């Protein structure tokens, strides 16, 4: 059996938080039609409940992300450029999620909901690229 070390814990926490932030958004989006038909205000209640888990997960992603950067210490251009792209996607993922959360019109909510999902998926993809 392979041994467990700090790298195992670091990647476990990073990937666990990514499953909540990215996977949670996808699952919530898939549930919206069912939540809407369950009654007025049900979608908003579910979204608020999700936010109470999603933002702490985003915080864990940032903290363990910094831990990743320090631990990996790869100075190659390819790694650094990929990391820059990841920073942009993570920032866009957080900002669009915040705008989506605070939107008052349905159109803004739909556009920023789609954008935050895409940026989160992009950050996930580039994260896997960094770990290769
Ligand atoms: C939306 C936020 C984020 C998502 C969805 C995400 C997702 C991921 C995933 C899935 C991996 C691959 C892990 C593996 O295959 O073992 C990864 C690796 C990595 N992430 Fe993130 N991440 C996020 C935020 C961050 C942030 C904020 C930073 C930097 C401050 C960061 C830096 C890194 C680094 C350096 C790696 C490579 C780790 C290694 O090779 O050991 N990530 N990320």
Describe the structure.
The chain is mostly helical and 132 residues long. The protein has one domain. It has helices at residues 6-37, 42-72, 77-102, 106-131. Helix 1 (6-37) packs antiparallel against helix 2 (42-72) and helix 1 packs antiparallel against helix 4. The model has no long low-confidence stretch (mean pLDDT 97). Protoporphyrin IX containing FE is lined by residues 11, 14-15, 18, 21-22, 61-62, 65-66, 68-69, 72, 86, 90, 93, 120, 123-124, 127-128, 130-131.
In short:
The chain is mostly helical.
Q: What compounds are bound to the protein?
A: protoporphyrin IX containing FE
Q: Give the termini distance in whole angstroms.
A: 22 Å
Pick out the low-confidence regions. Answer: none
Give me the strand/helix succession: HHHH
Largest sheet: none
State Rg.
Answer: 17 Å
- How much of the residues is beta strand, in percent? under 5%
Q: What structural category characterises the helix and strand content?
A: mainly alpha
Number of domains as seen in the coordinates: 1
Helix content: over 70%
Name the shape in a single word: elongated
Considering the chains and any ligands shown, give keywords for the structure.
132 residues; mainly alpha; 4 helices; 87% helix; 0% strand; elongated; binds protoporphyrin IX containing FE
Set out the fold topology.
Layout: H1 6-37, H2 42-72, H3 77-102, H4 106-131
Helix pairs in contact: 1-2, 1-4, 3-4
The structure holds protoporphyrin IX containing FE (HEM).
